[in-house]
């Protein structure tokens, strides 16, 4: 015997899972019909607990909501005679389902904004509604006008070559597009079939510290793009690649050593830098799934890469300094050594992470010096 509370829970789950796809439909799902079986009791159940059955029937005797019908079925019970029992709930239209879920205001906000976008851009805009629905539902009138203005501008200027803050979004400050790019881009794609906004992207810039005064180079702490670093000839014997910036800044002077900020997954852009590939490479990153994936990427392009402080012993020693990993990387991670693989397995077992900065510097420095053979 399913209760009105279970109906509300079912409607909540169903709405959360599908409201985006319903926003793409021409009628916004108002022709959809949803059924929720109530699993009415048998005669045997009634004979065991008649009060519970009577209370259950009474709970379904009140109106449930607009567009919601409670259908009943006739049962002939030998011991109790003819019974008319609630058998299932039929919900007509997504708006009725949203009402049951307590999300009617959310749904009306989404539909209202979707109607405006279809009016402005035609039916082609519908294909973008599913991926943007969660943000559109709560988008205010001013931001909706800005969204429409931005989409129009990109449709009219597909290859502007501007930086993102240079785009003239009507009624918006220079940072608006950065915050709403994920909302603008799907509509531009839907209207133009282009998967980019035609903006100019500044190349990622990598910070490098020359840790040995004897290495000839114009500057000791220099930032350039990967292409620019590829044109340099840095006479490094050892390159320490740090995932994060702060550990890089702590590296002390060391003979023949250069420190590089790998910037996480940005490390792949450094594959073109020949003087790194010609050196001994030490990689130090966070002890988490993403850190090991970045180590994998580094070792794939520089097979000689050795990790520092990315083993199961370090993880266990400083386990209490870690925190839950909110969004673990679930993909396959190869190119790891046995101690690295053990550490990764332990992290994945608990969805745990230990950041570089949480390892005491005296410990980290000692490990790095040991790896350098000092």
Describe this structure as you would to a colleague:
The protein has 374 residues and is α/β, with parallel strands linked by helices. Helices cover 43% and strands 16% of the residues. It has 15 helices and 11 strands. The protein has a 6-stranded mixed sheet. The longest helix is centred in the N-terminal third of the chain and has 20 residues, at 4-23.
Helix and strand content put the structural class at: alpha/beta
Mean pLDDT: 95
Query: Approximately how much helix is present in the residues?
Result: 40-55%
| Global shape | flat
Q: Which regions are unreliable across 5 or more consecutive residues at pLDDT < 50?
A: none
CA-based gyration radius: 30 Å
Per DSSP, the total helix count is 15
Features:
374 residues, alpha/beta, Dna Topoisomerase Vi A Subunit, Chain: A, domain 2, 3 domains, six-stranded mixed β-sheet, three-stranded antiparallel β-sheet, 15 helices, 11 strands
Helices and strands in order, then pairings?
Elements (H helix, E strand, L loop, with lengths): L3 H20 L9 E5 L5 H6 L1 H10 L8 E10 L3 E12 L1 H8 L2 H18 L7 H8 L4 H16 L19 H17 L12 E6 L10 E5 H5 L7 E5 L2 H6 L6 E5 L12 H4 L2 E5 L4 H13 L4 E2 L4 H6 L5 E2 L13 H13 L1 E2 L7 H12 L2
Helix pairs in contact: 1-4, 1-6, 4-5, 5-6, 6-8, 7-8
